[in-house]
Write a structure and sequence with these properties.
Number of strands of chain A: 3
Largest sheet of chain A: 2 strands, antiparallel
Number of helices of chain A: 9
Oligomer: homodimer
Distance between the termini of chain A: 51 Å
Order of helices and strands of chain A: HHHHHEHHEHEH
Radius of gyration of chain A: 20 Å
Strand content of chain A: under 5%
């Protein structure tokens, strides 16, 4: 049965898995689907604790320090459009795509693999991602995300996640793409407190 | 010398402290000044690591878990109007006043001293502080700051700090107190990324 014929029982677990638990869905053929379901558990969604465990166990951070729970919560909040505090499969994949991009970007600046970049490099990294910010805003961000004069990978990712989520929230309200939005207090608090 | 006469040498350290290290200043008479200078060290300002150490050593959290470094950074960011990433004496006192208020508020809801409150109690606590938010905004905040269906003291304080800082940033721009602000993208990012 290994040369292309129909599966004769398959390897342990697989037959039972497909037959008993999973409804047929296009996601089943996705290499990340098995990974996702293993992490998500019974409720089929990933919360911050599950995400932290998964990013730690998968070795995503490599030689960098693992992500703090706080950063994982920011990641979930960024993608959690239905505000359940959890992530479905599509959001999970979207997050990994973004994380891979940010990691590559970080490693470009962290040439000596110290696990940190210099604060002024954060401003460069943000610019290289296509954001156009004033030196004043860049300075505020540098101060907020540096520790002992350095930017650590975990904080860099938290910064990228927030910047992306806040920009997305702003753009959604800037229908005419004018670069200005008239915020009601309640809406301002909602879309800034959640990330 | 214990009955009201002039000090006859005083207890160890005091004379030398005033005479040698501290320049005369109104702050010297403040009971918190010695505490502040001991924490602030050479540069005379308190950064997030110093704040965390001080809040842990002073036992501020009591039976609650000590504050995470992340929450301490948010506290500094809230009060750091000159954006140096550090706090002077007046900001330090302002923070302690706010912290004491939040702690009392938290303990009112945490009657069983579990160190947590329920998510819906967070919405009540926010209302009792005078904020008027919609159920939708309250819900977003609850989701963001809860862990395993509970709100922990550390996260509660981080939430209070952010809400206060964001509201202050909004008010400053709402000159006519209309409840709406027209934000430029750059300004929006600066005043939301910094907290």
């Amino acid at each position: 049965g290994m040369m292309g014929g129909p599966p004769q029982g398959g390897f342990p677990g697989q037959g039972g898995y497909h037959g008993t638990f999973a409804a047929p869905s296009p996601a089943v053929n996705d290499p990340m689907w098995g990974y996702f379901t293993a992490i998500a558990g019974q409720d089929g969604e990933v919360d911050a604790e599950e995400l932290q465990r998964c990013l730690t166990q998968s070795g995503f951070s490599g030689s960098y320090n693992p992500f703090s729970l706080e950063t994982c919560r920011i990641m979930i909040a960024m993608l959690d459009r239905d505000m359940t505090g959890k992530m479905g499969f599509n959001e999970f994949k979207e997050l990994f795509t973004a994380l891979n991009g940010w990691k590559q970007n970080f490693m470009m600046f962290d040439q000596d693999r110290s696990g940190t970049m210099e604060p002024h490099e954060l401003a460069q990294a943000i610019t290289s991602m296509g954001y156009r910010l004033s030196p004043h805003a860049g300075n505020a961000i540098m101060k907020r995300y540096s520790k002992g004069g350095r930017i650590f990978f975990d904080d860099y990712v938290a910064c990228c996640v927030k910047l992306r989520a806040l920009t997305e929230n702003f753009r959604k309200r800037d229908a005419m793409q004018q670069g200005t939005v008239n915020f009601q207090y309640d809406d301002f608090i909602m879309c800034t407190m959640a990330v």
